Amino acid sequence: MDRAISVGWYDLPESGRDDYLEWLHGTFIPRALEHPGVLWAAHYRNEDSITPLPILRHTTDRTIPGGYRYLFLIGARDAHVLNALTPYRQKGKRTAADEKMLGMRIGERRNLFVEEGRVIGPAASQREGEYTPARCIQFGSFNSGSYEDEDELLSWYADYRLPAMRVIPSSLGMRKLVSVSGWARHGVMYEFTSLDDRARDFRAHEAKDPKTAEWTSAVVSKLVHAPGSPNVAQRLWPPVRAKA
Predict the structure, then answer these.
(1) Which of 36, 119, 152, 211 is 20 to 30 A away from residue 4, measured at CA?
(2) What does the angle CA 32 – CA 92 – CA 181 come to, to the nearest 5 degrees?
(3) Angle at CA 139, nearest 5°, toward 90 and 106?
(4) Which CATH architecture fits 4-237?
């Protein structure tokens, strides 16, 4: 199974963006998919119109790169498969053309995650291929405010949020992730049938139980998110199939 995910967040300049996207989707991704143990790749654009919850906190550390408008994900069998694709291992191996395109990324930040837990949602049959992530995802990357909060965070995911995503109608599934490398110690990827379906279902489920909503607020308010997190994003590649 695809137990490891590499995620890169970054921005792009207006000038040359179309050339970059053509290169990424037509050259870079197909090459990455040929690497043994790599099972999928996907590219997303953040929906800047989504207003974050007022209780969310973000890091104030200016040494943390601030890009967030694009997310590039690679899924693999395990973290050691992705080792060969890290910038550290790729030094001196990339072509000048690749380096030029990668150099267009602004404020790039990376994490390599492994899977802590996974649930399959009611809409999983709508997945476009065996591994392809949904057309709409929400991806959070964060640290707990204190190591003393880690047990509660574990409990909240295990006892509430993961089970909830097993029953929310528009959910394809959810993965809770922990970091092998990168600033964020924790990651979470939610998959939805569409942006509109997410907006309708996600908070509505939580609102059914005031006690759970109160717990959620308490847990979320303790987290320190990466810039732009959580990303609500729509898939650019693979192209989204038209509904029949």
Answers:
(1) 152
(2) 60
(3) 45
(4) 2-Layer Sandwich (3.30)
Q: How far apart are CA 5 and CA 106, in angstroms?
A: 21
Count of alpha carbons within 13 angstroms of residue 114, beta-carbon side: 9
> Residue 226: what residue type?
A
Model pLDDT, residue 167: 96
Contact yes or no for 216/156 (Cβ under 8 A): yes
Extract the tokens encoding 103: 């150099």
Q: What is the DSSP-derived secondary structure letter of residue 134?
A: P
**Other beta carbons within 10 Å of 62:** 7
d(CA 153, CA 38): 30
Do residues 8 and 72 make contact, with C-beta atoms less than 8 angstroms apart? yes
Q: Which of 157, 156, 79 is nearest to 117 (CA)?
A: 157
pTM, two decimals, is 0.96
